[in-house]
Amino acid sequence: MCETRKLELITEIARSLYDRSFEHGIYHVxxxxxxxIKIIENENIKVDPVHLKTAIFxxxxxxxxxxxxxxxxxxxxxxxxxxxxxxxxxxxxxVTAIKSHSFSYSKNVERTSDLxxxxxxxDKLDALGxxxxxxxFIYSERRGRSLNDTLxxxxxxxxxxxxxxxxxxxxxxxxxxxxxxxxxxSILGGELN
Length: 193
Fold this sequence. Notes:
By secondary structure, this protein is mostly helical.
């Protein structure tokens, strides 16, 4: 067992550690949380709301350390959850969900729980549409990625995310938001040419 107040405290600790950046800061985490609520409502999924919120607020903490961020997020989460006195079953469930959310790292982790599937879909949905489009350019600018490499990233990752969705609602929204990204890329391509 893990006391709700302790999980809420962990969520607040995590909240205070994120910066205010648009691409992977607290605003991203809050958007992922909102997407997760929409997925749950539309798919009528039953998950512990405190566990869901905890996993979402911990999922990108590893970015403070480096890559693979899902791995580091899982390590940090496991330490925080143990310190909070959570039992092994809860820790395993949350940590596995966190490990499985990442596009690149999730190949190493089986996504079997609804918690992991919801987090993965919600995180990917925030990478699409106008918000996702802006996030890619902000992230690229901060990392010194060239324009060509940024455009390549869209084709290698972003435009494929809709194929990785776990739920019908997520897939439908991802297809809709992927089309927005295609439109924005087309507009950008026209202006660049």
